[in-house]
# Entry
Amino acid sequence: MSSLSLLTQHDTRRGSNGFDWFPDTGSAREWNHYSASGATQSHFEETRPSVPEIRIVVDYKGEAPRWLEPTVQALNELLSLPANWDSYGARPIDPKAVSFSLQLLSEVMSPTVPAPLVVPTNRGGVQLEWHTRGIDLEAEIQQLGNISICYEDRQSGDEWEEDLRSDLTRLSDALSELSRRG
# Structure
């Protein structure tokens, strides 16, 4: 389980690393904490949006997981897609689906799992995909709290589809298997 968490209060950051992410503009601000061991290193420059729709605070202990930065960047790119981005009437990506996707990943990803491919859905949702190490895993987020999972393991022949609501065990197990094969 990752040490990453999504927070809404800044006062819980003491002794942690992290960054504020403003998904409507793609700007981020790295912040440093000072402790007996010194300050953390900065990786982002500050850019403040005029009026953000959402503000997500990503907090983590120690070094950021490798999947975090590329995933946040990919999720941010989805938010810049206009209505009809696919020329077939696609909806713009719902910022709540982006936020929920990041929250979901914070719950199920370990530092050794590769970053997912982040794909927009034409209904305004987000699909997270892993196609590596003999496993095809897709998690589609259309509505908050509703996750559709498709899993296929070409080595074992195991495959399943399931809608998850609150129990993320099968998704966590699939990502753990993917990580073990690294």
